[in-house]
Design brief:
Layout (H helix, E strand, L loop, with lengths): L1 E7 L11 H4 L4 H11 L3 E7 L3 H11 L5 E5 L8 H9 L4 E5 L21 E4 L4 H9 L2
Parallel strand pairs: 1-2, 1-3, 3-4, 4-5
Helix pairs in contact: 3-4
Length: 138
């Protein structure tokens, strides 16, 4: 059984409440239930933190034993050299995901410290991006 974890960064705990025109009106927990029901043969885990160091610690924890990481580091994508280095330092492949089209937003969101070390990047497809990332590991 494949082991895949989804790691979400800051403010993604507010999905369903925060800027629904950009992020939609559903919670991530509801979406995760749908994924788990659809992909019953995968051990799918979830972690969310608003704290940069906790995200780095989680990457270190799963980065040598899991089959894949789906990472939406949110705003840390554009600021955290530490998270980028953590992705570079682990063996588990990472797919970077963003709900919105980051290139249609503010210019600072066009830079990712994760992408150079990721297996791939998916953005602009809403929550569906997580499933696309999951399928890349199958």
């Amino acid at each position: 059984m494949k082991k895949i974890t989804i790691i979400n960064g800051p403010n993604l705990n507010l999905l369903g409440k925060r800027e629904p025109t950009i992020y939609g009106d559903g919670t991530f927990e509801d979406y995760l239930k749908k994924l788990k029901n659809k992909y019953v043969d995968i051990q799918l885990e979830y972690f969310q933190s608003n704290i940069e160091g906790e995200i780095i610690d989680k990457l270190h924890e799963v980065g040598f034993d899991y089959d894949g990481v789906i990472l939406n580091a949110a705003a840390y994508t554009h600021t955290s050299i530490g998270i980028g280095d953590a992705v570079k330092g682990i063996e588990t492949p990472v797919v970077e995901v963003h709900i919105s089209n980051i290139h249609a937003r503010e210019e600072f969101r066009h830079v990712s410290y994760i992408a150079p070390n990721a297996k791939g990047v998916i953005f602009g497809f809403g929550l569906k991006g997580y499933e696309l990332a999951l399928q890349s590991f199958l």
